[in-house]
Amino acid sequence: MKIYALLLGMLMPFTLLAQSNFKDGYVIKNNGDTIRGKIDLREWTINPEYIDFKAADGALQRYNPADMRGFYVQPDFNYISYSGRISNNRNQFPNVDKDRDTTTRLANVFLKELDNGDKLSLYALADNIKPRFFYKAAGAQPVELNYYRYYYSDNNEEASLHGSNVLRDEKFYVQQLLNLTRQHPDWGTYNLQDIEKTAYNEHDLLRLVRKINGQKEVKGANRQPTAQFYVGAGVVLARTTFRTVSSIVFDDVSSKPGLKIVTGLNFFNNPVTQKIIFRAELSAEFLQGEAFRNALNAANQPETQVYQIKRNFISLAPQVIYNLYNANKVKINVGGGVAFSYNNYTKNGVSDEAILNGSAYYPTYELSKFIVMMPLQLGVILNKKVEAALSYTIPHRINAEQLTGLKMSTTALTIRYAIN
Fold it and tell me: Which residues belong to the signal peptide in this entry (predicted)?
């Protein structure tokens, strides 16, 4: 692990830099003026409370929702400012209210544009409480679509006997949309069932709004890929250590370079910044190593015995990768996860130089088929396409016997290439 401590120390200057991701964009001020420049595009799993804007002269300014009408960031992120009341109720299972909560509060926030249609636009607001959705008719102010989910006591005899509460859904947003479309019967190609079956999520609401607008393509949606398929290969070295109370013990371990082949999917928390990556990787590794010891043979003469192991395995590893340095063309990351492997051993034995019978080879340990490992990695991603990563698996037990502890760790250099 010393090599990782050294590399992480070298990366400290990068982690101390401001992790900015300025993209071309503009802000629309309250007086209607448009100012072009660059906007720091962040992860924004919840809607931003402010933005950092860099003008053409390099001056940096921070804007709040009250300071402007909205802003746009390439490739396709549009936000508008909203000042009005928003709901307080919690409706995301299992975090739901015990009683119906219809209270609201006044807020100045940014709303993310999901669709901008001629007739109806759709916006989203996510905070630490829940996701909210707003519709906006042409020339009108945004209106929140209300959805209540809460527990209430059912007074029937059976429920009272078991002391149970019932989870109730009140899709008030369905009635809001029905009332709106009844006022405009000429809107789009949709029917009553389209509205009644719409769930309170981005996918369903976006699909309905597109039908109302008569759109064939989604406008205002982020077209960046949310997942990325990759393939790769690398060189891997294995280190085997022995912890035993039996007579079979080897001190000096050497490893020959092995092959590693990988394929997998990267899932991005934010497809544009790609700061956090959830990775599912399938790999095949072919390892081999030798361990030596001095011993006495059958003729009571000193000789060198060699323990040989060839381990081939496939593994599935869910991982989380975090980009410490996250520029557009260069990203430096650390990551880790858990790997579940199925193993096959083509060599697992000791060879010696017995004088009486010539060389001999005999099996030794009972090695495990299924092994759980913990991989760590330090990597560099270039142009969001090519990744070079140095990985290390923490020493893990590979044998099933109780008296002998045979552990292996691996160090690998892997190159991955994204297909899309």
Answer: 1-18
Rounded Cα–Cα distance for residues 80 and 71 (Å) = 6
Contact 86, 147 (CB under 8 A): no
Report the predicted TM-score, pTM, of the whole model to 2 decimal places.
Answer: 0.65
- Beta carbons of 19 and 326 less than 8 angstroms apart: yes
17 forms beta bridges with none
Which CATH number is associated with domain 227-418?
2.40.160.20
Q: Please provide the DSSP assignment of 25-44 as one string.
A: EEEEETTS-EEEEEEE----
Asked if the bond preceding 395 is cis, omega within 30° of 0, the reply is no
Torsion sign, CA atoms 12, 14, 16, 21: negative
Say how far apart CA 65 and CA 49 lie, in whole Å: 7
Give how far Cα 41 sits from Cα of 55, 81, 257, 268, 272, Å. Answer: 15, 17, 42, 15, 8
Q: In terms of Cα–Cα distance, which of 138, 169, 165 is closest to 154?
A: 165
The closest alpha carbon to 346, from 311, 306, 300, belongs to 311
How far, in Å, are 70, 76, 292, 352, 358 from residue 355 at the CA level?
87, 77, 18, 9, 6
Domain extents in the chain: 75-213, 227-418
The SS3 assignment for 109 reads strand
Q: Tens-of-pLDDT digits for all 420 residues of the chain?
A: 454 454 445 444 444 444 567 889 999 999 999 999 999 888 788 899 999 999 888 889 999 999 999 999 987 789 999 999 999 999 988 888 888 899 999 999 999 999 998 889 999 999 989 999 999 998 899 999 999 999 876 665 554 444 457 888 899 999 999 998 888 888 877 788 888 899 999 999 999 999 888 876 554 444 566 789 999 999 999 988 876 555 455 665 667 899 999 999 999 877 777 888 999 999 999 998 877 777 766 667 777 777 788 999 999 999 999 998 887 789 999 999 999 999 999 988 877 654 334 466 666 778 899 999 999 999 999 998 999 999 999 999 888 776 667 888 999 999 999 998
Q: In what order do the strands lie in the sheet with 22-29?
A: 60-63, 51-55, 34-40, 22-29, 68-73, 77-87, 104-116, 120-126, 131-137, 143-145
Provide the 3-class DSSP secondary structure of residue 146: coil
Distance between start and end Cα atoms, the chain: 34
* Residue 259 backbone phi and psi in degrees, to 5: -110, 140
